[in-house]
Specification:
By secondary structure, the chain is mainly alpha-helical. It is 81% helix and 0% strand. The protein has one domain (17-243). The chain has helices at residues 17-38, 40-60, 65-88, 93-97, 100-106, 111-140, 145-172, 179-206, 212-243.
Length: 244
Amino acid sequence: MGSRQPLAVPLLDPVNSSPGVWHAMVAVLRRDLRLSVRQKQDLLNPLLFFVMVVALFPLGVSPESSFLGEAGAGILWVGALLATMLSLDHLFRFDFEDGTLEQIALQPQPLFLLVLSKILAHWLVTGLPLVILTPLLGLMLYLDGNSVAVLCLTLLIGTPVLSLIGSVGAALTVGLRAGGVLLSLLVIPLYIPVLIFGTGTVMAAGSGADVSGHLALMAAMLVLALVLAPLAAAAALKISLSAS
């Protein structure tokens, strides 16, 4: 495992606040991406878990193409949800343990913007690879081309929502020893609407219905999570740091 260095965010002229905020956000994003590349297990574990869930499901239920064609969207969405949740506990925990999180909280920039950069890094190394891998797995589950395209679009919209919502739970449980179990209990109920709309959109596309309304609702979820989740995660981090 590569060593994790404390964050050092060089700031620009404090009088010119906008470039300083942007510089700090980019610094946090680049640092998290660099650490993820060094720790390749953090990149591979969610992908391997995703593939195993999709591959084992037909063996445990039914390998019939008709069944898999109907259930394929749900299988892939559940696999993506679980793979995302598998990596959530690492979103803030390593930084909390080595003191980097306290340095981030002490920066003059708004904490929720720096948290947003960390969430973006999490999605880039976890959610985006799942979306890229989905077409191949969708064809393995006998989904037609239109359904695969709509499924990829729903995951492209929905996986950032999973990372955003999950960041709130990760921030609340970052200081707890058994935080992983509690994190699952906190975020799974909040994931259910995303799962329902994601699978429902693909099923509607498979039946030939118009999916623009479904996609608009998912986009509204993304905007709402993008606005509220970083604020809630930043507040939760302050609570966790003050309690530690």
